[in-house]
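Friendly challenge for the regulars: who can give me the structure tokens for this chain first? No prize, just bragging rights.
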Amino acid sequence: MKTNQRKKRRPTIRREDTVMVISGKEKGRTGRVITVDWKRERLLIEGVNMVTRHTKPNTANQQGGLVKTEAPVHYSNVQLFNPTLNRGVRVKIQTSDAGVKNRVCVKSGEVLG
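First reply, four minutes later:
Bragging rights claimed.
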């Protein structure tokens, strides 16, 4: 491995998961993951990291003007949300006896969806 390359982490966050932002200007906000881009290690989260784009009128948007959309967030700034603990938690991958891999909360040992 080259010195300037980092080892890629195993993806533990998937689409439709609920996550909590743990750092940055959106710290403490929770939302549902819309898309996951593991090549760039970024997540698009519903209602988090909203940016304003100035758009010209076109066929799709007749009016034009200011459009608010979500911007991607780096995966290291979010944690999987555990509803029973009501906070973001670290996750480990655990294989059951049947050979099924599950995401398990490190703190409580609870299997997360």
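The two ends are 34 Å apart (CA to CA). Residues 35 and 44 are 5 Å apart (CA to CA). Your move, everyone else.
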